[in-house]
Amino acid sequence: MANGQVVLITTEPLGGGLPVRSVYYVAEQDPAKAEAIIAAMMAPNERVEAFGVLPEPAVKALGLKPGDFTRG
């Protein structure tokens, strides 16, 4: 197992207002690949950004296998 990525999702409300942010933990070491995993399920009004490294012990504690993700 290796480090993963913390991925930040910013959702722009369709009716206006303040954006809403969500965090996902992805068992993928490469930031661009982690973004792609999450972007595949996002809506057009959502922006995906790899925010930082998720240490290997955290990936294990979350029970994530390579390519898996969970919402934080």
Indicate the overall shape.
elongated
What string, H for helix and E for strand, traces the elements in order?
Answer: EEHEHE
Helix content: 10-25%
Distance between the termini: 20 Å
Overall pLDDT level: 95
- Range of strand content: 35-45%
User: Rounded to an integer, what's the Rg over CA atoms?
Assistant: 12 Å
Biggest sheet layout = 4 strands, antiparallel
Lateral arrangement of strands in the main beta sheet: 3-1-2-4
**Low-pLDDT runs:** none
How many alpha or pi helices? Answer: 2
Let me know the number of strands: 4
Category by helix and strand content: alpha+beta
Topology:
Elements: E1 4-11, E2 20-26, H1 31-39, E3 46-54, H2 56-61, E4 69-71
Antiparallel strand pairs: 1-2, 1-3, 2-4
Task: Please explain how this structure is put together.
The chain is α+β, with helices and mostly antiparallel strands. It is built from 2 helices and 4 strands, in the order ββαβαβ. The two termini are 20 Å apart.
Name the features.
72 residues; 4-stranded antiparallel β-sheet; 4 strands; 21% helix; 38% strand
In short:
This protein has helices at 31-39, 56-61, and strands at residues 4-11, 20-26, 46-54, 69-71. With 72 residues, the protein is of the alpha+beta class. A hairpin with an 8-residue loop joins β1 (4-11) and β2 (20-26).
